[in-house]
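Hi everyone, sorry if this is the wrong subforum. Our group has a chain we'd like a structural model of before ordering constructs, and none of us has done structure prediction before. Sequence below.
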Amino acid sequence: MMNKLGLIIVSVILALIQTGCAEQSTWMSLNSSNPRIIWEVKPQADLENITGEQISTPEFKMSDYVKGVVPGTVFTAYVEAGIVPDPNYADNIYKVDETFYNRPFWYRTEFELPSSYSEGKRVWLHFDNTNRFADFYFNGEKISGTKTSTKDVSGHMLRSKFDVTNLIKKSGKNVIAVLITDADQKKTRKAKDPYGVACSPSYLAGAGWDWMPYVPGRLAGITGNAYLVVTGDVVMEDPWVRSELPTLQKAELSVSTDIRNASSSPKEVVVSGVIQPGNISFSKDIRVEGGTTARLSINKDDIAQLVVDHPKLWWPNGYGDPNLYTCKLTCSVDGKVSDVKEMTFGIKKYEYKMVDNVVGYPVLTFFINGQKIYLKGGNWGMSEYLLRCQGKEYETKIRLHKEMNYNMIRLWTGCVTDDEFYDYCDKYGIMVWNDFWLYVAYNDVAQPEAFKANALDKVRRLRNHPSIAIWCGANETHPAPDLDNYLREMIAKEDNNDRMYKSCSNQDGLSGSGWWGNQPPRHHFETSGSNLAFNTPAYPYGIDHGYGMRTEIGTATFPTFESIKEFIPEKDWWPLPTDEQLKNDDDNVWNKHFFGKEASNANPVNYKNSVNTQYGESSGLEEFCEKAQMLNIEVMKGMYEAWNDKMWNDAAGLLIWMSHPAYPSFVWQTYDYYYDPTGAYWGAKKACEPLHIQWNASNNNIKVINTTAEDLKGAIAKATIYNLNGKEVPAYGQTKQVDVAASNIAEAFSLNFNPFNLAYGKKAVASSSAGASKSASMVTDGGAGSRWESAYSDPQWIYIDLGREEKIEKVILKWEAACAKKYELQVSNDAQEWKTVYANKDGRGGTEQIELEPVTARYVKLAGISRATQFGYSLFEFEIYGEKPKEIEELTPLHFIKLELTDAKGNLISENFYWRNGVNDLDYKLLNTLPEADLSCRLVDKSMSDGKMKIVVKNNSGTVAFANRVRLVNKATQKRILPIIMSDNYVTLMPGEEKVITMEATPELLKGGVSVLVKQYGKAEKNKLDIACLLYTSPSPRDTR
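Answer:
Right subforum, don't worry. Here is the predicted structure as tokens:
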């Protein structure tokens, strides 16, 4: 989003490309970014009885028009004209009279041919996208459909291309008129009419979702690039470069293109091409009859050079470099260039396997170039809710995904129609899960043939992009059989099955959708469950299966206080809505930005209460936002790390709902609408790093994750435990060498936060168990989530072998709901002869602390006599205590876990940080008692000319400096510097510790110098460093909201 929310649009197509030579065609932009082009927009009803033929003449004058925005929508034009108050702010967009926009509108513009045009050339008028219906007129003639037809172009993904050679005026004004008609369904926000699939192909979210509002006009407009191309009689259409990989050392390329002869006479055409790098040249002749289109194909049988030795492969982020090739095609007739096309492609090979998990359910698993790929990413709905994202701004958004260490974006219901999105996914190694325009609520399409035409155009238009990893028919359902069969057969033909076609986004080898409500990390480690799974048979969930490949899981995500100030009026900042308001209030401004009933899936009541109960009640919005970022970090990191923990057993990947915001809101995002990274961004970035060390909040297991194509050997995993005061407690830490195979995980060790428990890690033996995941050993693993479960019968028993005789004074039993009604505790020194030391005839479950007369024994048995439920005995932990060793220091209830992973040379390759309450789970209110630390900040390196700098933040105190947030503001304007790429944030520093943080921003944003602001958790933000601006040259277009 550009300054003033899209007032300035960066166009990918230059305003005018004129070379004047035979080597290239003339290409002229008709976008609003061309200063010579002014689009006029007006309701059709205001031009009653005036035809398109009349409107598309120079003599016609459109009075009282609104200046259009192309690419863009009708509604956006009125927003940019200031007629509609800022729709981002408060509930402004909900106050708009949608009926004004939910009707047909005329677009009109005039242009003159460029001076480079020469007689005998053919002129083509292009519109890449129009929504939802379009009729085209040029210089007084209807050029689409028939003279009497309407809604000629149907669908938002269908390209329109018109030969206007015989209508063009070589001098003077040429006029274009386009009648845009909005979608048929849901004419008002509250209408009951089915919307979505019924209006497909379109931007389905335009009717409103639980993350963006209903948009008046439902995104009707000229939504893609408009341009003029001058060529010869023969043009190339939909050129395509395919690659096959018999081995990783050899690629076989093939090139194909349609050759269209627009003249009435046959043409002898020579198509030549050059592929770089490698300077691979080729050419082939073809005869094309007049008024026809022929297909030209060139492969290794024609040109031996199309077999490439040691190709530079395209790899997803983290697994290698996303290498790209270019292919420039030229078609010539009689020695003169008629058309030129240049495309970018990547050499890669996608493969897919269904791998059965431990309960025999198939899990979809991705491979690229022979390497198994663990998927990490997020869902993307709209790029921006009013389609105001264009050109270079896509690089910022995709770069942020790369920086989060993602390797996949799912385009939910295919709501992106801009080629630049795919260009930058190619560049940054981000695979694309590419949906078509169907979703679960409806399964009927009003115009199946229009849907098919749009789908065909989509595949032909995008198939050169190596980033596209899969085509998917529908969101959380299957397309109707006719459409499903068409998509499958069309993709097999047009994409040669280079990418899988999958009918449904969450079934058939996928593990459902959800959860969407806020859940603590431990929850995800302990259950793979989802709240939306339509698989038949039902998808089996558990602690050791059911994670699979999950395409949606998410949580509410509060933005930063600085961002909330941009869209919530100050009078509504505090107090937050009550639980009742969050559940039922339609009109609350918070609900209008999806913190309320409109986003009930995100469970805002639970989110608010989690912040308050875990981090303490707040006195104002700024304090609440700061605490919410801690929850964001924890929850987002926990979701990814729970899937990491089960990698290939049976987790194959996780895509959160959502990674990218389209509207200022409180749900489904990592960075917010203004590009300010929330805690969720930093949680995702940490959990998804290619080499990663992590802690399991359920069983205290430490694992190392390797999502690269290289083995990790000789690495050192280290855990250091600190008390609340920042003092290290060595007895609880561990260090171990670990090797991790490529694209795999390895267990390093388990932390023991209860060293006084004699049973920890000791052998347990039981009369029966309900499976490997509920075996006897679970009661001694120190984890709060794992458990032993017996057979469903009486009696049952389980005993602990302490390894030697110990003095025993206390036993703690931590029961699941299925507890014992009657049981005994017994001891033995040989596991043969048992002595009863305690009996309970009225067990109530929960946590039982049983004080014993001191007794010496090696074995301690729980002998279950009768169960309290129909299920088996179910026990989380069986803890045994004697005298506390005096040499072991006890931890403070709230303490810190610092993990470090170093390579064989001692280089730090991953670090991670957690806060834990070992007494009251999830109670972090003691963080509010930490004293203010003495923080300093210094500049290590700066290169303002390219927008990069490196700073060091240091804790000079003897206490912990928790969750320090660093942000930059422009000294001259006092505006925050966004977007910005930072290596880390919300960093915790132990006494004397320092952290290096790298930063990168567009140089123009740094003009005037910057101030580095640092805020310790719970303390006032302070300016810690001023950096003067250096001179810079050639700034790139600004990417700031």
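For your construct planning: The radius of gyration is 32 Å. The longest helix spans residues 621-645.
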